[in-house]
Automatic annotation (TrEMBL):
Residues 15-166 form the 6-phosphogluconate dehydrogenase NADP-binding domain. Belongs to the HIBADH-related family. Residues 172-288 form the 3-hydroxyisobutyrate dehydrogenase-like NAD-binding domain. InterPro entries: 6-PGluconate_DH-like_C_sf, 6PGD_dom2, 6PGDH_NADP-bd, HIBADH-like_NADP-bd, HIBADH-related, HIBADH-related_NP60_sf, NAD(P)-bd_dom_sf. The lineage of its organism: Bacteria, Bacillati, Bacillota, Bacilli, Bacillales. GO terms for molecular function: NAD binding; NADP binding; oxidoreductase activity. The active site is at K176. Gene3D superfamilies: N-(1-d-carboxylethyl)-l-norvaline Dehydrogenase, domain 2, NAD(P)-binding Rossmann-like Domain. Keywords: NAD, Oxidoreductase. This is 6-phosphogluconate dehydrogenase. Pfam families: NAD_binding_11 (PF14833), NAD_binding_2 (PF03446).
Length: 298
């Protein structure tokens, strides 16, 4: 057994973490609270709250722990640190990507790690920053079986459910994009429904009560309330990131020759919203564009 494999099987040993944003920091902090030392690096210099992670001087130092988690904005941010991860991660080490990434990019990550005798696990999450704070994320995982077992004790500290979807890492990112496609479509439909009933004289609050009683979904409950209360700023998930995800969905569908007419509509909606100054607001702010099209000003 190599040193790195022994390390990977022991959840009490230090792990690396790259990305300390609104999702990454609380996730890494949960590991620390569980008694797992975390050596972390963030692209933008920042002070780590006392009692949380130990800051690394570089991504390579974080990766040298033997298991390294990345929670970064997109493919480009992950690609930017990948050379350092490949250099710092020991043979047999594991890179766990918890961001929403493109399917083809996820494939390439697995290939590049395999070429260096390293392992790659995809573990993207469903949940906003409040879910990350409460360790209530839903985690979709795919990768080599032994690598998944090695990182499962860490993942269990971050969420309330883990869904294993196979041995090829890109499968987890396909599931995550499929889920985000459903959420984006729901946001469009719910925004249109709110505006529809509003213009016909029904209060949005009354509609929300009927909606949540009928659908009984935590996703509709949560997003329906965000839209109702117009909690667009500060954002839980920025609209520009929603646009990024819809682009990834459309790209993956194009590569697989899967017609997704709704994805084209959503891409136009998020592109239009970003062009009208909403890129840094929550992705639920598409409601403003639906309202504007219907002649409603809020």
């Amino acid at each position: 057994m190599t040193r790195s494999h022994a390390h990977a099987a022991d959840p009490r040993r230090a792990v690396g973490w790259i990305g300390l944003g609104r999702m990454g920091l609380p996730m890494a902090t949960h590991l620390v609270k569980a008694g797992i030392p975390v050596v972390a690096w963030n692209r933008s210099p920042k002070e780590a709250p006392e009692g949380t992670v130990r800051l690394a001087a570089s991504p390579a130092e974080a990766a040298s722990a033997g298991i390294v988690f990345t929670m970064l904005a997109d493919d480009a941010a992950t690609e930017a640190v990948l050379p350092a991860i490949l250099e710092g991660l020991p043979e047999g080490g594991i890179h766990v990507a918890m961001s929403t990434l493109g399917v083809s990019f996820s494939r390439s990550l697995a290939e590049r790690h395999a070429a260096r005798g390293q392992r790659f696990v995809a573990a993207p999450v469903f949940g906003r920053p409040d879910a990350a704070q409460a360790a209530k994320l839903r985690i979709v995982v795919a990768g080599p079986p032994a690598a998944k077992e090695a990182v499962r004790p860490f993942l269990a500290r971050l969420g309330e459910a883990i869904f294993d979807v196979g041995e090829e890492p890109h499968l987890a990112h396909a599931v995550k994009l499929g889920g985000n496609f459903l959420i984006a479509g729901m946001l469009e439909a719910l925004s249109e429904a709110y505006v529809f009933v509003d213009k016909l004289g029904v209060s949005r609050e009354a509609f929300y009560e009927v909606l949540t009683a009928f659908f009984r979904s935590p996703v509709y409950d949560n997003y329906g309330r965000i839209l109702l209360e117009r909690r667009f700023d500060p954002p839980g998930f920025q609209l520009r990131l929603g646009l990024k995800d819809v682009r990834l969905i459309a790209r993956a569908a194009d590569e697989a020759l899967v017609p997704l007419p709704l994805a084209a509509l959503l891409l136009d909606r998020y592109r239009e919203a970003a062009a009208n100054g909403l890129a840094e607001e929550d992705w639920t702010a598409i409601l403003k564009r639906v309202e504007a099209a219907a002649g409603l000003v809020r």
